[in-house]
Amino acid sequence: MKRNPIQDIKRSTPSMHHSASSFHSHKVEEPAEDVVVQDEPVVIKKKSTPTRFIPKRNINNKLELKTILVVVGIILFILGIYFLSIKYGRARVTVLEKREPFTFTDKAFKASRANDSELGFEVMIVSDSIDKEITLTESKEASSKATGQVVIYNSYSTTPQKLSINTRLVDDNGYIYFTDKAITVPGFSMLKGKVVPGSVGVSVTASKAGQLYNGEPRDFTLLGFKGTPKATKIYARSKGPLTGGSSGKVYIPSSEQKGELNNVISDELRQKLSKSLLAQVPAGYILFEDSVKYDTTFNPDEILSQNSSTLVKVSGSTTAIILNEDNLEKNVIRSANSTIPDNEIGEISVPELRNFVFKISGDNSIINKDTVTINFSLTGSGVLSWKPNYEQLATQLIGIKKDEANSVFAMYPGIDKARLTMIPPWKNSLPIHQEYIKIKAE
Prior knowledge:
Number of helices: 8
Distance between the termini: 125 Å
Structural class: alpha+beta
Shape: elongated
Strand order of the largest sheet: 6-13-9-8-14-15
Radius of gyration: 54 Å
Strand content: 35-45%
């Protein structure tokens, strides 16, 4: 009987599997073989090599240790930051200072040169001169007498001394001058135990024509008191040079020259006097421009010369009142707000003080070095500006609780509002070192 090949293969399959099983037990790897069965491949796959086993417990332990170390590090870092911020924290205080506007309209004040005065003042008198070379263009025959201004003093008694018109004054050269009007010289007063002579100004005219009577300021005695105790106690001094004396042919400025010289010389002299005055104002005093009075002796009509080219010398002086700035500021503050306590005035200032308009009252229209008291007024607007003692404030804030700061701020009347900022924000107490407390005014 003829065998079927496929049946033979099928019958041999179990033994072949057995053989294959036995074979695989001795060999780890074998290439896959394709066996064609009914035109379809049967794939026999190779077995993989077993992976080495690593216990999970060791891996987990290492991960847990790393996590713990990281967490502990973060906690220590945060704690370090916290404790450093507690020790070296900052505090910033922003202060809005108190300000109170006010306005004066002819507000009256009184100042005195007495030692115990609440408002002191001094009188500054500065003299100067300028020389101007000019060429005179006109001439005339003339015979004129020198004229000028003098101040007569009375240190003889407290009783006023009356002098009639044409009272004779004589200088050291024996030249005689007459007063142009009747006057009364006030009696002397006492200041700090010293005699302050009474004084009055008057114009004088030389007794004769000629240039000999022209000249610089000089001293005079009164001929009528010669040989009496009054001779040395009632005396006169010229205020500026005596000018205008001439005789014969003289040169004079033209009308155009007079106007030009008057403007140029007067302006130059005033500028020079003003500069000298400002340079001499002592520290701690305030000078109001409105208190300055200029007195120049220049008069173009008095220019006379024997030659067409001449040197014109013009003298002048300026008188000004300077007030003790600290005293004045305190008086202004009290006048602006009378309810402010004395112990608070020290932290208040008036920045606009120098901008006020100063005006001497009518009874003090003539100011000289012997003036003892003055009445004046101020007009203008200003602001009372408080400036708290920030050094003291910072000292009082050291180490206190944050919620106690407002009670400290309330102790300072110059603080209108205050804002406290803590760095870091969670800090409840202000720094224990003053340098970490910063105060700023806005």
